[in-house]
């Protein structure tokens, strides 16, 4: 089992910045990739960014050049630095961890943190 606790959401004006954090605890030795997803009202949850244990990253086209994902393996924490925020970035942001064990993969999710960008 993996527990994920997010923090750092809030209200910001367009053009501003926020930094999200996600702390993992529990069976963290099996965690491979971690990432951030978001879900806006009336829309499906979508990938924002992911980072592997080897620090390989992947970003949604909509956030490339504005968002940066990073990982502190010693602290078991993943961060999402969000710059040049736009109103369309408004959503609930969820932390995700993929744990690999005995050839199977398991997805874990945080409770979500609200990000609201005003125009």
Global geometry: elongated
Let me know the number of strands: 11
User: Unreliable segments (pLDDT under 50, ≥5 consecutive)?
Assistant: none
Q: Count of helices?
A: 0
Average pLDDT across residues?
94
Strand content: over 45%
Descriptive notes:
The chain contains no helices and eleven strands. A hairpin with a 4-residue loop joins β7 (67-72) and β8 (77-82). The strands form two sheets. Strands 2, 4, 5, 6, 9, 10 and 11 form a seven-stranded mixed beta sheet that branches. A four-stranded antiparallel beta sheet has the order 1-3-8-7, with no helix packed on it. With 119 residues, the chain is mostly beta strands. The protein starts with a strand and ends with a strand. 0% of the residues lie in helices and 61% in strands.
Please render the helix and strand layout as text.
Elements: E1 2-7, E2 10-13, E3 18-26, E4 31-39, E5 46-51, E6 57-59, E7 67-72, E8 77-82, E9 91-101, E10 104-109, E11 113-118
Parallel strand pairs: 2-11
Antiparallel strand pairs: 1-3, 3-8, 4-5, 4-9, 5-6, 7-8, 9-10, 9-11
